[in-house]
């Protein structure tokens, strides 16, 4: 598996696969995937691949029927490469960390779209118990939840353009602060990013997390 950030072409391919196999309960674009992976890397305890690879599709029943082995393997490899890149930036180069927000053009003007990333982040948060987050850091989580939960839609509609811009600008430092806090806690596991090894053998457990052997699951 390669290291470093994904190319625009690789991100576009991931986006197309998420759209191809997506459903009402799944991650639907790379911005949402980026947010979810950031939260998984930033939480109080490790979320193993066997769990989040299922969660991103909205549950075990929604795991894709891949067109072929190569498609599945490439999706997993690129997802882990992207996750490792996020981990590297958060752990060692936080000044280089940037949420993968979307951009929308309206009347020849570009607007930053943070909702997808924030919804993905909150989905990652939901995979673990964050209730022990101290009160002093709750505003950081709230800054992300403002754009990442449906209950805040009405509040967003009341923001002026300047307030909206400020609320989006607050997301990046909030994510960095949350990651730094959990990383410093005793229960936080090693900061080393999860790395995908070689492609599984036919009789190895399937990397999708189904519990079946690879030859009885995603190989076909």
Automatic annotation (TrEMBL):
InterPro entries for the chain: SEC_C_motif, YgfB-like, YgfB-like_sf
One Pfam family hit: UPF0149
Protein's UniProt name: YecA family protein
Species of provenance: Izhakiella capsodis
Source species taxonomy: Bacteria, Pseudomonadati, Pseudomonadota, Gammaproteobacteria, Enterobacterales
